[in-house]
Design goal:
With about 140 residues, this protein is an alpha/beta fold. The chain has 6 helices and 5 strands, in the order αβαβαβαββαα. The mean pLDDT is about 95.
């Protein structure tokens, strides 16, 4: 498990932009099952989270359509919350970072690590904006 002093600034990059930090399985389940669109970002300490995923997710919010609910869980820190979120990501295997978009509790769009690693924050943002335009 990562130390809080390492993780908290990485969480703040999202929470300071309107994301709800989900730290328990119950919070995750309630967030995903609520009506409307919910974005779940599986945050991570890795370089592709810092260089592409977090900045790309934040940039994606500069769009006419955005998810109604913005949420995040942190891999290697909020282990039970991440495990619960991953139950909803099936059939996709565990991946971090990752970004999932749900509509009325149904997974409608997924970015796995291999969609993030090696791609720019701009590319991540554009991918997510297209999903928002289709589902939000």
């Amino acid at each position: 498990m990562y130390p809080a002093d390492l993780v908290l600034p990485m969480k703040a990059q999202l929470t300071s932009n309107g994301f709800e930090d989900l730290t328990t399985p119950e919070q995750v389940e309630a967030a995903i099952k609520q009506g409307g669109t919910t974005l779940v970002m599986v945050n991570s300490v890795c370089g592709c989270a810092a260089g592409a995923a977090r900045p790309g997710v934040v940039m994606s919010l500069d769009n006419e359509k955005v998810p109604a609910h913005l949420t995040t869980v942190f891999a290697g820190f909020d282990k039970e919350a991440v495990a619960k979120a991953r139950e909803f990501f099936a059939p996709f295997p565990p991946s971090s970072p990752a970004v999932a978009l749900f509509k009325d509790g149904e997974l409608v769009h997924m970015l796995e690590r291999h969609h993030i690693e090696g791609h720019s924050a701009d590319a991540i943002a554009e991918n997510l904006k297209a999903a928002y335009n289709e589902f939000a």
